[in-house]
User: Fold Gluconeogenesis factor from Marinicrinis lubricantis.
Amino acid sequence: MRKSSSRGPVPKVVVIGGGTGLSVMLRGLKHKALDITAIVTVADDGGSSGILRSEMQMPPPGDIRNVIIALADVEPVMAKMLQYRFETGNGLAGHSLGNLILAAMTDMTGDFVTGIKELSRVLAVRGRVLPAANQAIFLKAEMTDGSIVEGESQIPLSGKKIKKVFIEPEDVTPLDEALQAIREADAIIMGPGSIYTSIIPNLLVPQIAKEVTESSALKIFICNVMTQPGETDEFKVSDHLKAVTDHIGCNLFDVVIVNQGGIPPEVQQKYAEQGAETVEVDLDELERQGYQVVMDELVFFKRYLRHDAVKLSDHIYRLIEQFKSK
Assistant:
């Protein structure tokens, strides 16, 4: 096991993933005394991100945009403006302003990573935001019937059960900065997020899974609260972890954070109408496999169920402090 090189007063934390769940968590985590590096998927091929990816020959900016805004130290109106999505306009409809700015910064600097760094500097981002690779990757899935579904946006729509996912090109080059951040991390966090389309694609980028596996950092997995139709139907918490294990060949995590209760029946019914259900916490199986399980009421509901960023970040920070004190 490689020893973490950081044992200073401010723990170094690497978060890996994509999607809305990661951004929600980071809104709470950025207020802790932590040195944060976010490594974000570049497999998105739908919507505004997909259009810019195709027309500008750049990695998809959507997940990166969400993470930058989550970590930014800006007025709420600025964050809202960057998330603004045009509803009309020839060529503009469907695009978010933040995506267009990232595309402009990439074009101006000639490099996606440099564009991210410049925008992060302008927005006073607390931490670093890095793509898993400096080029777009294309996600494909082999289904249990042997068929292949192409495209991150199409995989959940296939109506079939996923056997495994893989990326093209397979030999995409990871960012040296991302690998170094993993080597120096005191804690590595994955989730919440889509297990097959937001989390695992990062681990399929060559060397990233190897570095995470060899790291002696505390490794935390935050499980989704609800199943995702077409992706994790009927999944228990242990099934999410097994999906990661099946792709990288070993159990990766030390601690699993799960939601316990707190979802009103009427909210569960609303999600059931969309084919989603509460992820069952199979505690006995998790403990049998050697995971430390942290359970708490971690969600609230507005239009959608979301993790409580403050409570979640409190748990994460406590776990890191305990780990550092050993």
